[in-house]
């Protein structure tokens, strides 16, 4: 059985990652691709602890927690799903670490060292949007954590995502940056699905895993 494709979705808080992830999964399923949606921090005990305490635990300590959750997530969920032939789409991954943890004062090299043995994605998608669009989407949805409540974050976050794009590319990962300011989630999803088809040739006709049916 051919291994599935590993796709990650990153971008500023409120840009539309979760919404787009749902649209991507729908689009891939419609095309017959078995797909699993997942997220970081993960739904494991460690992931739930990380999410619950990310407002209180800061800097290097949060970076280590997020990385520990990632290694478990890869071992327990991502790799097994890929091995079953499922495409895995993950809401937040390495680029988020490079941005969020640097916002929190952790040097990039420390983050790269901490993540040196992770599974790299087949495609890393970074969603962007104009500052005003992000502000509007965030206020529509409501802030979820301290990084989304700090008014100084959006400008620094945007610059750090531009840097993360180069860093992830430097690791040999194909990076697709999509400006979502004037697009719908389904149009963004179609771009991602079509990039995946271009990368893999036949992602839409991968092996069928009944457990991954919608
Ligand atoms: N083009 C778009 N793409 C994705 N989300 C959008 C778009 N336009 C508006 N939104 C809205 O932005 C809000 C934030 O989306 P969400 O997926 O929760 O963001 P994130 O997961 O990046 O924090 C949601 O209310 C969503 O409906
Ligand atoms: C994936 C990831 C998350 N986090 C933190 C940021 C947030 O405090 C928390 C959850 O992020 P987020 O996905 O933005 O939450 P939500 O899905 O509720 O919008 O995890 C990191 O610090 N680094 C990371 O690499």
Describe, in plain words, how this protein is organized in 3D:
This protein has helices at 17-30, 45-53, 59-83, 94-103, 108-114, 131-141, 146-149, 153-170, 185-200, and strands at 6-10, 35-39, 87-91, 123-128, 175-179. By secondary structure, it is of the alpha/beta class. It is globular. It contains 9 helices and 5 strands. α1 packs across α9 (185-200) and α4 (94-103) crosses α8 (153-170). Thymidine-5'-diphosphate binds next to α3 and α4. Thymidine-5'-diphosphate binds at residues 13, 40-41, 51, 54, 62, 66, 92, 96-97, 100-101, 144-145, 147.
Question: How can the largest sheet be summarized?
Answer: 5 strands, parallel
The CATH topology assignment is Rossmann fold
Indicate the proportion of strand residues.
5-15%
Q: Which residue ranges are poorly predicted, with pLDDT under 50 across at least 5 consecutive positions?
A: 203-214
Distinct small molecules bound, one entry per kind: adenosine-5'-diphosphate, thymidine-5'-diphosphate
Radius of gyration, in Å, reads 16 Å
CATH class: Alpha Beta
- Rounded to the nearest angstrom, the distance between the terminal CA atoms is 21 Å
CATH A-level architecture: 3-Layer(aba) Sandwich
Protein name: Thymidylate kinase
Family: Belongs to the thymidylate kinase family.
EC number: 2.7.4.9
Domain Thymidylate kinase-like: 9-148
